[in-house]
Amino acid sequence: MRIQLTLPRLALLTGLLLTGAAFAKPRPKLTDARATPETRALYRNLHKLSGKGILFGHQHATEYGHGWTGEADRSDVKSVVGSHPAVIGVDFSGLSGRPAPVVERTKTQLRNNIAATYDRGGVTTVAWHFTNPVTEQTGFYWKDSVSAPAVKNLIPGGSHHEKYKEILRTVGEFALSVKGKDGKVVPMIFRPYHEFDGGWFWWGRPHCTREDFVTLWRFTVGYLRDTVGVHNFIYAFSPDCLFKTEAEFLDRYPGDEWVDLVGMDNYADFGRNGHYNVEAGVQKLKVVSDYARKAGKLAAFTETGLESIPAESWWTETLLKTLRREDLKLAYVLVWRNDTRSPTHFYAPYPGHSSVPDFQRFYQDPYTLFETDLPKLYKEKRWGIF
Questions:
Q1: Using CA atoms, how far apart are residues 300 and 261, in angstroms rounded to an integer?
Q2: pTM
Q3: Where are the domains of the chain?
Q4: Helix (H, G, I), strand (E, B) or coil at 67
Q5: Model confidence pLDDT, tens digit, residues 102-121
Q6: CATH class in words for 2-373
Q7: Alpha helix (H) ranges present in the chain?
C-alpha cells in the first residue's frame, strides 16, 4: 500500500521544492559561511519542506531496538511500516570520558551508522550527553553534593578550558571523518546542551549563569567551525518545555549568528506520567515556530514521545493533530529511543505492540515523511531551488 503512495508523494514533494523559484525569498543562510554544499542543500531543502510535511525521527533507531541490537539495516520502525524514520538520532556521548579503546569502538560504530543513513538519503541529528569534564564520576547528570559546576570552568580562562578544547577536537575530527559512498563529508544536525532550562544535566540553568552558558555555546560553535574546520554541522538550540513566552524561550539564546535551528523537547505536556496538557504544548511549539520564521531559522520538535505508548491512538489523536495545528512550520519531530532490554522504556512501536495499527495510520498520512518518502535532500540544483 505504501509503495502506491510513495511515488505520487515524491512527485508532490519535488514540485513543492521546485515551484515558485522566481518569487522565492533570499536563500536561508547557515551560521557557517563555509558550510559544505551538501550541508547547505540539506538546510535549504528542510526549509522548503517545513510546513508542507514533517520528517519523522527516532533516537538510536538503527543502532538497536526493542529486544535487539547491532543488526544491519534494521529498525523497529522499519519492521512495523517498511521504512526507516526520515531522521535518525545518534549521540556523541561516547566520544569522551571513557577509555581510549572504547572511544575508538564507538567512533567506528557511529561512523558506519551515520554514513549508512546518509547513503540511504536520511538525516542524522546528534545529541551530546557527555560526561562532566570536571567531575567525571558523575556522568552527564547533575548529582547534588557530588557534581561540580563545569560551565564556568570550560569557557576561556576556566580551569578545564584546555581539556574542553581536546574534547571538541575529538568531536570535530570525528565529524570530518564521516563520509558517504560519494566521498562527501556527511551533514549532521548537531544539538549540544539541550534541555538547558532544567536542572537535571550539569549544563542546566541552576548550575551556570546565563552569561557563562552563552559564552560556552559561542565558543563551542566558533572553535568547531573556525579552528577544527567543521563545516558539516547545522547547529540546533533546544530547551525543554519550561517556557511560555518568546522571551522565556530566548533567555539563554546565544544570538541568531550562532544558531541554525530552534527546537523544543517536550514530554511533559504529551502524556508523561498520565499528564496531558496538549494545548500548552501546541502554544510552546508555536513560540518556537514563530520565532524561526521571524529569524529565518529552521524549527523542529526535537524530542517528544510517550513511554511505553499506553494510549494506542497517541500517534494520530495526539501527535499528528498537534503537528497539524496552529500553522506550525516544523522540519521534523523525533521520539526517544527503544531500549534493547527494558520491557517498558520505548517510544516507537515494535511488531506486536498495541499501537502498531495507529502508527501505520500515522505513517500513511500524507503529512508525515519517512525515509522512503524523501526527495534528494543533499542536492540543490535539482531539489533545492529557493
A1: 7
A2: 0.93
A3: 2-373
A4: coil
A5: 999 999 999 999 999 999 99
A6: alpha beta
A7: 2-18, 37-49, 76-81, 100-120, 151-154, 161-177, 210-222, 246-249, 278-295, 314, 321-323, 356-364
